[in-house]
Amino acid sequence: MRRLIENMMGWFGVTQERLCRERAIETPTGETLYWDYYCYVKEHPVRRWDTPTSILCGGRDELCEPDVTARFARQYGCRLLTRPEAGHYFHTPKELEALRQWLTASL
User: Fold this and answer.
1) pLDDT tens per residue, range 60-106
2) Residue 87: which domain range?
């Protein structure tokens, strides 16, 4: 999550100092960056992940790089399926079909 937040901060020119000062900043994409949440994420990194987890990742994810997701999956023993053609949000008919198949296989 930290990587995703810091990516968004970089895209929109939001520094830590500004976020601290303003506490909450709405981005042009409609997402809001929150100082308190950013601090929580930095102060509480994942150290254990005991829940069996499956992750579906887009190979062209623009919010969190696929290599970051793959590293997390390896580190915590998560099952990972990457769809090379997809971004972060699965929304095209082909991507939605891949999501349906993944859900059916994972649940």
Assistant:
1) 999 999 999 999 999 999 999 999 999 999 999 999 999 999 999 99
2) 54-106
79 lies in some domain: yes
- Let me know: does 79 contact 53? Beta carbons within 8 Å: yes
Say how many domains are in the chain: 2
- Residue 37 lies inside a defined structural domain of this protein: yes
Residues 72 and 31 in one domain: no
Q: Where are the beta strands (DSSP E) in 30-78?
A: 32-34, 54-58
pTM of the full predicted structure? 0.84
Average pLDDT of the chain to the nearest whole number: 96
